[in-house]
Amino acid sequence: MKILSLSTLPLLPHLGSGKTRIRWTEGLRELGHEVEVLQPADFELWPNQIRAKKYRQAVGVFLKVRQLLKIKEYDLIEFYGDEYWLLLLWLTRKKKRPLLVAHVDGIELHDMDKEQRFWHPRVGFKKWLFTNTHYRFSKITFSLADRYVC
């Protein structure tokens, strides 16, 4: 199976999330799958900027994967995080597309709700902006996945 794996974090063997993603990919390869991995260095627009990272990654990965799909076919695209909403919106409108698999720990949206209500409540324009951007994009991403790995 040809798999494209997308990570919003750098794949560094000494960091928890990076190490987990590296080991997962190694396991897939040992099982005979062909796996290509993209990390922020491969797609993030203006990586030295601090602001709007989620948006820069969403647009960057969309452009990069769209370019890749013109020359390669994948059976499955797996992704870690919620920055893939733009890519998933585009892919789900295509007749022939790869299986879309989200890697989640199951609490992303629950955590966002708790953050909004208790830890860092937003009010006024900040609440409206968060609800209509980050929260909305997370819901889009996780609702468009075909399968989940938890």
| Number of DSSP strand runs | 5
Work out the radius of gyration: 16 Å
Overall structural class, as computed from helix and strand content, comes to: alpha/beta
What are the segments in which pLDDT stays under 50 over at least 5 consecutive residues? none
Strand order, largest beta sheet: 2-1-3-4-5
State the end-to-end distance: 21 Å
Shape label: globular
Mean pLDDT: 86
Task: Describe the protein in words.
The protein is globular, with a radius of gyration of 16 Å. It is α/β, with parallel strands linked by helices and 150 residues long. The chain has a five-stranded parallel beta sheet, sandwiched between helices. The protein contains seven helices and five strands; from the N terminus they run βαβααβαβαααβ. Strand 3, helix 4 and strand 4 form a beta-alpha-beta unit.
Task: List descriptors.
five-stranded parallel sheet; 7 helices; 150 residues; alpha/beta; single chain; 5 strands
Short overview:
The protein is of the alpha/beta class and 150 residues long.
Write the layout of secondary structure elements.
Elements: E1 2-7, H1 16-30, E2 34-38, H2 40-43, H3 53-71, E3 76-80, H4 85-91, E4 99-103, H5 108-119, H6 124-132, H7 134-144, E5 147-149
Parallel strand pairs: 1-2, 1-3, 3-4, 4-5
Helix pairs in contact: 3-4, 4-7, 6-7
